[in-house]
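Note on ligand handling. Small-molecule inputs were canonicalized before submission; formal charges were left as drawn, and no protonation-state enumeration was performed. Where a ligand contained multiple stereocentres, the stereochemistry in the source SMILES was retained. For nicotinamide-adenine-dinucleotide, this procedure yielded the string shown in the input block below.
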Amino acid sequence: MKILVTGGAGFIGSHVVDGYVRAGHEVLAVDDLSTGKTDNLNSSAPFQQCDILSNEFQQLVDDFRPDIINHHAAQIAVPVSVDDPVDDARRNVLGSVAVFEAARRAGVRKVINVSSGGAMYGEPVTLPCDEAHPVVPESPYGMSKYAAELYLDLYRRLYDLNFTTLRYGNVYGPRQDPHGEAGVIAIFTERMLQGRACAIFGDGEQARDFVYVGDIVRANVQALDRGAGEAFNIGTGQPTTVNEVFAALASAADYGEDAVYEPVRPGEVYRIYLDVEKAARGLDWRPEVSFVEGIEQTVRSFTDADAG
Ligand SMILES: NC(=O)c1ccc[n+]([C@@H]2O[C@H](COP(=O)([O-])OP(=O)(O)OC[C@H]3O[C@@H](n4cnc5c(N)ncnc54)[C@H](O)[C@@H]3O)[C@@H](O)[C@H]2O)c1
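Structure output:
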């Protein structure tokens, strides 16, 4: 298949490009490099630097004629969205509509859209949180990801554009940017390896569904020909607290300092983990990488990157 991946130079998008290339597909990576890095690019997949909101993007889609558009490009930081909701909506809502519109005009078979199970349900009233849970985002970021989902649903009804939406938990693994606002595991890993202090916002008992990026890649492969017109949670189904993350990383990175506790930040939920049974049924997908294994692989990749 011909697959265009937006955000293909980013943390997750670049792993998805790698996964599709490994599976023998012809892949075009598109990214404006606002947070993505050329170091992440796969040498077997061509790359175009392009903003999804630009006119050139439609032209690119028309020229490449993909069977599938896999949409990972986004502004991903919750605090940035709280500070500047207009820019978040421009990039995540208008940007997504531009991608769906380009897909419709070019006759793309399917859009695989990426959303956030961690940010759109708000503070869950039932746990684990399944896809039928009420959507009550606590941040502009959660709202913008959900708005894109609704647009895509409309595109299916209005223009018959097929899609699958993947609602990720908190994704971690090699290549995650430790300097961004998102990604506590990447931030702690880098700081621990450099012997620096790690800040935990709140009491550290807030829990997330931390899912390894390799499992995310497999979900994107499964979604190529499954899950039409549906949204699926993609996580582990297990809660892990930030204190547990700190302890696991400290052990893997041989770090002896205590965490520094700081005030809670607005816009973040306290305790969430996802019900992933729908993905097991509809995508024939289950998470395979344990937390301990994922943490070890992540710390190893950061150590190797430092050595390189
Ligand atoms: N990291 C997580 O835990 C997580 C959780 C849920 C959902 N997601 C979603 O996964 C996707 C990828 O996130 P990530 O963690 O890899 O972040 P990332 O910042 O590494 O990736 C986003 C990529 O999109 C690119 N981009 C941003 N705006 C663009 C634009 N207008 N045009 C073209 N490219 C643009 C960036 O340069 C970057 O490479 C996002 O849609 C994000 O909302 C991530």
